Amino acid sequence: MKQEIMEAVKKAKEQSKPRNFTQSIDVVINIKDLDMKKPENRIEEEVFLPNGRGKDVKIAFIADGELAVQAKNAGADLIITKVELEELGKDRKKAKKIANIHNFFVAQVDLMPMVGRFLGPVLGPRKKMPKPVPATIKPEPILERLKNTIKIRIKDQPVIQVIVGSQEMEDEMIADNIETVLSIMDRKLEKGRTQIKSMYVKTTMGPVVRVI
Question: Of 156, 201, 163, 197, whose CA–CA distance to 47 is shortest?
């Protein structure tokens, strides 16, 4: 299977027209025999890609005091303090903009009630509610892990489309990332990856290439 994936990735890159930005590589997986009416079939899982996403991930860190300073030094893209949280509660337009451009949110655990109150209506529907962390934690490992993490979600349709790398990454590294996604299928689906109806890879703006 890995060889077929690598060949498809190579072909997807070759068939993609040059763009003035680095395109992502996505995998698209269609699943058969999955009753979407059953809640247990609605998969929502965070997956750590062994070779990273190959593209920047934007992370907002909601914290005060020492943790806010540490998170900023560790490379968080945005720090939201307690005061700024209240301000965002009054400025829905700004809150939506922040929610849209950041992939992940992390929040100091004692600020979570305020997060729920002021940002919950914006982050909740986008499935971006923050991970709560204690004020004593070191932010570096959290940020490092999130930068290599994707979210797999099956909600209304039995299909998954997720980023598994960028066109600048080696084919084998992307194939390893796709294998990691498939291992989730083995674990979450009743019949594992035998329930995969079809699988494709594609660049952001390129044509799809069938793997299986």
Answer: 163
Domain boundaries, the chain: 2-54+148-210, 59-146
Look up tokens 């990332």; give the residue.
Answer: 177
* CATH architecture assignment, domain 59-146: 3-Layer(aba) Sandwich (3.40)
Quote the DSSP letter at residue 201: E
Report how far apart, in Å, the C-alpha atoms of 73 and of each of 78, 79, 106, 149, 151 are: 11, 10, 15, 21, 26
Residue 135 carries which DSSP code? Answer: T
Whole-model pTM?
Answer: 0.84
Kind of pairing between the strands at 196-203 and 209-210: antiparallel
Distance of CA 195 to the CA centre of its chain: 23
Could you read off the pLDDT of 170-202 as tens digits, one per residue?
A: 999 999 999 999 998 888 888 888 899 999 999
73-82 LR contacts (CB < 8 Å, sep 24+):
74/138, 74/139, 74/140, 74/143, 75/143, 76/106, 76/139, 76/143, 77/102, 78/102, 82/111, 82/114
Beta bridge partners of 25: 165, 203
Beta bridge partners of 202: 26
Protein fold of 2-54+148-210: Ribulose 1,5 Bisphosphate Carboxylase/Oxygenase (3.30.190)
